């Protein structure tokens, strides 16, 4: 079968009998470039930060939408703004610091200055010196602002979009995502700190990973052996109406060690011989009335909101090319946490992040896929666990949400690019 014929097959048969994803979408620069235009600059909302990261007037945070550098600011009236971090003069980064507080934004190159909404407010030597030089007579300051993105918040999470036509952010997220955001962001939060993880792989491999309850007890020994997550637990894998976003949740109290031992047999990741010398890592508190102990909310295209035991965090994906991305983990607790609760959250932060006892394995999983598919022009993956369709599941042995992701990707980007 030719590549063209294979492409037709991918396009004509979305999620009917298992999903086959051509590996070249993870390695071919053409797909990466189309994703930047059609997804990150297209009809999507991308996560850019937490309101709590810019609490005071003048606070700013440098971040990205896809690969485009942007700045999240809080203006003097309290309003939030997201602007492209690129001077309208010669294209330099206006803001080079990761975070800070300023009354205005100023490009270091020629000191063009902008207010916190991104409006140009100052151009040195605009009228020249001693009657010489200066900008043309018809120069209009208002035509040279920083590009301003649409900005909306949901539950203290800030989203931005390049699109003027995309639906409201709440509609884009849908009720199931909004409900879960508001469940975790149920009261004022305190930011505890960031972790950053560079991964030598394609960002979509991580999008698959976070929609994949099937792998979690098979890859992660700590999860399974110590009972934080097992596929045998009570839980569900759900999607929004458009199947863009995924909610995975489970309840650790449903563990049945004897039955689980039988289910996992001699699986590498279920080893009752392993013991922790210090059990305090697993000491936590039940803090949600629904008894749910793990939530992985994967929001298309670049956000994961998580609750693992008492760790709460957002994970933002920043793309750097077809074979590299960064995960930015921002941990938080609640403002009314007592000292013991904050200590629990900080200790359990060792479960996740680039050196965490659980999630460092996800980065490795992404990289071993990327290493194995380099140069593949026609081979595909096969995703079918749970029935091979983008359907909700009242269990955790499914890949349905991954197929939902690819159905949306196929619509926004397609699988139709010929190899360069």
Automatic annotation (TrEMBL):
This is Anthranilate 1,2-dioxygenase large subunit. InterPro entries: AhdA1c-like_alpha_C (IPR043264), ARHD_Rieske_2Fe_2S (IPR015881), Rieske_2Fe-2S (IPR017941), Rieske_2Fe-2S_sf (IPR036922), Ring_hydroxy_dOase_asu_C_dom (IPR015879), Rng_hydr_dOase-A (IPR001663). Residues 45-160 form the Rieske domain. SUPFAM superfamilies: Bet v1-like, ISP domain. Keywords: 2Fe-2S, Dioxygenase, Iron, Iron-sulfur, Metal-binding, NAD, Oxidoreductase. Its cofactor is Fe cation. PANTHER family: CHOLINE MONOOXYGENASE, CHLOROPLASTIC. One of its GO terms (molecular function) is 2 iron, 2 sulfur cluster binding. It holds the Pfam family Rieske. Its EC number is 1.14.12.1.
